Amino acid sequence: MGFRGLAKQAATFALFASVSASQLWHDVNRYDAHGNECLYREKSDVVCSRLCVTDLSSCPTSLQPSCPDNQSFCADGECHDECTDDIQAQNPCHCSRSGSKLPSEAQNLVPCLTIPNVTIQQFHAWNSEEDIRIACGAEANITDQSKTVGVWDKNWIGGDIEAVWAECPAAPTPNYKYNESYWIATYAVNGALALLILVWSVYKGFAEQSVRAATLNKTSGAENHRPGSQESIVADSDSNIKGTNEKSTVEKAMLNLPSDSPAGSMNTDSNFAGVLAEGTNLSGYRNHILGTVSVWSIGVCTLLWICLLGVLTADYYGKLPGWRYGKDFSLAFESDYLLLATFLILWGISFIICVSLFILKPYLRNYFRLLTLPADGQYVCAVRPLNEIKVMEDNANKLQRSINTFSERLRTRLGRDKEYTTCPIEKTSEGRIYFTYQCTRYVLDEQTQQYAPYEFDIGTSHRRLIQQADGLSGAEVAYRLELVGPNFIEVKVPSIPAAFVREFVSFFYLYQLMILWIYYVYAYWQVGLVDTGVILLSASIKVALRVQSERRLKQMAEQEETTPVKRDGEWLNVSTRDLVPGDVIEVTTGAHMSCDCVLLSGNAIMNESSLTGEPLPIRKFPVRIDDSHYNVAEAGKMSTLFAGTVVSQVQPVTKSTDSLESDRVLALVRFTGTMSDKGQLVRRILFPNPISFIFNEQMRIVVCILVLYSIFVMIMATYLYKGNSVAIAFYGIFAIAQLLSPLLPAALVIGQSVAATRLRKKKIYCVDPQRIMTAGKVQVLCADKTGTLTRDNLEHYGGRCIDPATGKFVEFTSDLLATDRLFQQAVASCHAVADLNGQLIGNPVDIEQFRASKATIDPQPEYLDAIQTAPDTNLGKIHVVRRFQFVHARASMSVVILDESTGKLHVFVKGSFERLKAISSARSVPADYDEACADLAREGCYVLAFAHKTLDTADPARVGEFTQDELESGCDMLGLLVFKNMLKSDTAQAIAELKHGSTRTVMITGDTALTGIVIARQCGMIPENTRVLLGECKTPADEIQWVDVDTREPVADIQPHLAELGSDGFSTTELAVGGAAFERLCATGEIDTLLFKIRVFARMKPTHKVECVEHHMKYAVTAMCGDGGNDSLALRAAHVGIALSDAEASIVSPFSASNRSVMSCVELLRQSRAGLATSFANFTALICYGQVMSGMLKMASFYFSISLTENLWMLIDGAIATGMMLTISLSGPAERLAPSRPTSRILGPQMLASIGGIVMINWVFSVMSYVWLFTQDWFRCNEQAASEVNLNMWWLLGDNYESSILSFVCTYQVINNGLLVNYGYLHRAKWYKNYTLLTLWAFLIAFISYMLLADPNRVGCAFRLNCGTPSALEKLGYKSPSWYIEPYINVIQHNVIPRAARYKLWGYCLGNMAATNLWQIFVINGPVRRLLQKKKPLRRLKVKL
Predict the structure, then answer these.
(1) Buried/exposed code over 1237-1255 (b: 16+ C-beta within 10 A; e: otherwise)
(2) Angle at the Cα of 638 from the Cα atoms of 464 and 1141, rounded to 5 degrees
(3) Distance in angstroms (rounded) separating the CA atoms of residues 1254 and 1309
(4) For residue 776, which phi and psi values (nearest 5 degrees)?
(5) pLDDT tens, residue by residue, 535-580
(6) Please, which residues bridge with residue 1073 across strands?
(7) Which distant-in-sequence residues (6+ apart) come within 8 Å of 792 by Cβ?
(8) Is 933 exposed, middle or buried (0-12, 13-18, 19+ CB in 10 A)?
(9) Are 1171 and 759 spatial neighbours (Cβ–Cβ below 8 Å)?
């Protein structure tokens, strides 16, 4: 035994000495199994109480004292040379009482001689006190003690009573005088702290009066001109900048975090007067020596309280240094009760202090600073509201709503609905005041006395941008650098120790720490060490994942290298950290862009995979020299070099008609730091809004239920286990600890961690691990078409030209070289393809178009590009003189080319067939144009139209004089270029898997609706034999015209078609809409009713894709899958974004998959569902464990005054519960997606039925085990009786049959919990494939079965099960053990269950396991569940898959 030989452990459980030894509802050892009175038995060596009299002559003759001549008989009942005061004070008849606590009747009592120990031949366990008195009276020759002898404090001497038995009540507990040195030190330290805080509070109140008054006055005077309003910001900005910077216009904007925009609004004073109801507020603070001393004093005192708990714990084990070493409970007068009571009170105070500090943590430090205006402080505290993202918001019942309302109010009351960030105020070298918040510099405006991030407006017109090509002066750079700060996003990754500190400052870890204190002090330190190890392991996993993610983000975010910059008219090599808006840099091959830039001259090929997920490099073109508006969301995107991208190749342009000519590739810095597109993404990752799952909502109810149950357990302990309040309090805390296991956080995070690891092995990378649980509940998957569902590279199918003479289509041909000369030139030149070291770069459609022309790119162009046509065509060389990039808003692009063979200038326009029809001359458009295009689209073809005109001039220099509209107007239609949209090989399988997994799939594409419909049908997104109605309109203001895509007949009313239901209960009609129709539906509000009827959203712009995803997010957990580029905005907006990118990690979305297939989405959902199911399985196992340990086990322990043995406790808590939790998590995902998603409701019917059924079955079997036990002859009359055992030795309270039965039944139940929750094969692998868990389960079952079934052996005796003292085992016919066995404390000296009864009990335990397994297999996961799901389906999102 671990505590054997240590007197303090025995004394610890002297708490039990005051416990009533009799059970409430039956007489112990009174009747046998047949109702007969138990046979009397002999009880030897019984200690007799002292007999007390007022006159020693009244003692029986045999007990009258007789001392030697030189000694006297003293009040302690012994002979001494002298009866000193100390000896007299030890009078056993006073029962350790003195003074006013000693009854007057006992003051004159003196003891007779000690009665020798007696042997009782016929001992009645139910009448033990009377039997002992009779036997002891007989030993003292007292004939009729019922009349002459009374009992102390019951029958005093008087009348016929001549003596009393000194059966003393429990001795009064010693107590402090509270003038001990350690108490005085406690008073002094805490009193000084309280006085210090009081003085500070009074001083703070007076010192801040003027600041508050000034703030209120300023606020009341600003009602008509709010400093935080957008209008005032612009006005203030203009007045501040005038005269300061003549070259550039500077705009200042305040931060408004709820909109996630770098520019918004803020009122620095609203923290006092509430000027702004929403947004981020600023407050200023400055240090004061008194406040600093106060806050440090609080920290020191808190540590002292924790240290005091440590001191009491050390004293409990007798480990205090100095003269106290080896003395147990030396600080509590060697009273275990007093020490534990003191510890309990101090533990409660420490817990309250720690919880208070946790609640006050966000604003505690600033309370001990003096409040100032933000402009005058040493610190600025930014307070922003936390806009919680609620995923899968449940239709809460009244109880849930009430608890949610209460918790939200409490959260608001405690300030937990806001984020508090305190930033030190700094100064630049020029003395300008600023602070850095969320990686962004906020500079003090001396005029408005407000802080704001500076944003330099470098212009919005192309001409204005190009005018800044000469760069900045050194003075201007210094000025701007001072305002915007370094071009560097610093991601602070804490060290490992700091990461652990950050992890542990949460409430649940605080709860765990305080519970572990109870374990350590209450002689349970071994299990405390095991739980500490598991908690540290859980924290280590979380810390490792988080630090790994932060390091990956740091690698992506932080970037610094040297780049050529033009300043003061000279080129300098400058660190990218020192770049400012307005700088002109040279773009070089291999450079990493650290800021957003506008390309002024030359071409660049950019790799944007790490930023947008775009798998292929993108070609960028310079802005044209005209007055066009620069818009980065539209055409300007093709001239923008984004931060976070890599330059794959550059091409200087020395001869151009409409762009800046230079022998360098020049770019103008537009945004730096967090103002860049990359910076905003990084900031969103670093400072996200919290995500709330249904689990979080319902966990509040679960905690309330478990706490109420813990209170019930404490009440039952008080009722059944009639001990002192300290023992009951400790048992209540243990009950709470077992119900709300400290391992719960580890159980809930381990599934997520395992899923993240498995995803990484599948080359699916995650930058936001908490989204894994969200992915497990995805209901709708929105997917892009090209590059996602279909192959990246389209296949050239052919062309259909128009005869210019007749204006009609000629026959379709797959041989491009057989087409018209102009059509061939258009195909060869009207694109933006570039050659990167032999690899064609550009839009996949452009690349396939160029390949079809069989032309090549001249690496040394005279103008923008030079195209060498195919040798067989005799078309000669084509020079691209001017190019207008493809713009989604125009749905077209155009080029001006110089035909070297003829010297003529031609304009070629390419775009959607709808757009080209609109801009081409009507005479050149065939009458059957629309029908021909629609027919091709219905075949699943990707159709591009070309138009042409010849310019009047042959001078390339004059091309720059024309606008794009002028060049494109009056063109004649040339013909159609057709591509085949081929599905990826596994797309159909992936869609089928997703549908099988109850996931609705939706297509959002920029292609035509007819092409999208064909692809949707090919991949199975639209089922066979389903009518499809296409809705389109020319503009959002027009009415939508619906057409049946198969019959081509118009449909006036779609509702009758939608009302036609199929065998599955859903409509047999699907809808498809174009971009304009989608806008129309959004404007009229009809989108909400038709959303889940629409399968294909076509001609969608990037902003349309975002709106579409957001509409789906209103009703379902929505995922977006795309290959980057135009999908990047939607990927960011969705609950779960999956970027199909070759980059290992992309910050555009939480997930990125290098396997560029929709099967990556299937894999993500498989692993996420398995992770979610695993987390809930662990949660279920721990709740069931808590119910076993705090349910029947606790009730039986209280009633029978028993306990599990020390080693068995350690086995259950340290090995079984922990081992099962870890091995449960090793279950892999199911082979395919199940038709339903794993539950996320811990109060849902599945969880309640599972846990409730297991608990009820276990309770029934536990109760019935005791019913069976009480029918056994070998048990009755050998029952546990507290009066017959030494209750001080708690670890031996398992030395009885009651405890043995409880031990085996409960241990089997706890082991079986791991197997029960391992089923769930719907989302995880088959239960028999978790080999580690099955091996552990089988080993534990075999181990416990061996202890139960085998005859007494070393293993069983180590756990004090089926064992006994050597003499008792020999009497039973077993060999005397060769190992040491601490003596059993029960009367029969063993707890060996008869062999036949052992097998019955074993079969009974197996029956218990079988019953719970059958419940899980047939009810929770089997036919009963399926039947109930059909009859009473849950209120889920009912949509056609």
Answers:
(1) bbbbbbbbbbbebbbebbb
(2) 145
(3) 9
(4) -70, -10
(5) 787 778 778 877 877 887 787 778 889 999 999 989 999 999 999 9
(6) 1031, 1097
(7) 615, 616, 786, 844, 1123, 1156
(8) buried
(9) no
Direct distance between the N- and C-terminal alpha carbons of the chain, in angstroms, rounded to an integer: 63
The per-residue pLDDT for range 1128-1175, each reduced to its tens digit, is 778 888 889 888 876 655 666 788 888 888 899 999 999 999 888 888
Cβ atoms within 10 Å of 1166's Cβ, excluding its own: 27
The letter for the amino acid at 711 is: I
The Cα 267–Cα 254 span in angstroms is 8
Contact present, 420 and 381 (Cβ < 8 Å): yes
Separation in Å, CA 431 to CA 239, 252, 482, 549, 764: 21, 19, 10, 37, 48
Nearest-angstrom CA–CA distance, 1054 and 1049: 12
CA distance 726 to 552: 51
Q: What is the DSSP letter of 1441?
A: -
Mean pLDDT of the chain: 81
Residues 6 or more apart whose CB falls under 8 angstroms from that of 875 comprise: 821, 824, 825, 828, 869, 899, 901
CB atoms within 10 A of CB 410: 11
**CA proximity to 933, closest of 942, 923, 924, 920:** 942
Position 250 scores a pLDDT of: 30
- CB–CB of 1206/1291 below 8 Å? yes
Q: At residue 723, does pLDDT exceed 70?
A: no
State the angle between helix axes of 1297-1316 and 1192-1200 in degrees (0 to 180), rounded to the nearest 10: 170
Q: Which amino acid is at 407?
A: S
pLDDT in tens, 974-1032: 999 998 878 888 899 999 999 988 899 999 988 888 888 888 998 999 988 889 999 98
Strand partners, 535: none
Distance CA 427, CA 443 (A): 9
The per-residue pLDDT for 886 is: 82
Do 458 and 468 touch, CB atoms closer than 8 A? yes
Residue pointed to by tokens 């009866």: 83
Tokens of 992: 């089928």
Tokens of 1145: 């990690």
In 1114-1158, alpha helices (H): 1128-1133
Residue type, 68: P
Q: Cα angle vertex 298, ends 293, 302, to 5°?
A: 145
Tokens at residue 416, please? 């937990």
* Phi/psi of residue 829, nearest 5 degrees: -115, -25
Determine phi and psi for 7, rounding to 5 degrees: -65, -25
Do residues 1134 and 683 make contact, with C-beta atoms less than 8 angstroms apart? no
Confidence of residue 1287 (pLDDT cuts 50, 70, 90): very low
Q: What is the pLDDT at residue 1352?
A: 92
Tens of pLDDT along 366-405? 999 999 888 888 999 988 887 766 665 555 566 666 777 7
Token digits for 1426? 């399926």
The confidence band for 504, taking pLDDT boundaries of 50, 70 and 90, is confident
Q: Which two tokens stand for residue 199?
A: 């003085």
Of 873, 837, 839, 841, the closest CA to residue 855 belongs to 873
pLDDT higher than 60, residue 1428: yes
- Number of H-type helices and E-type strands within the chain: 45, 54
| Short-list 1229, 150, 1204, CA closest to 751 | 1229
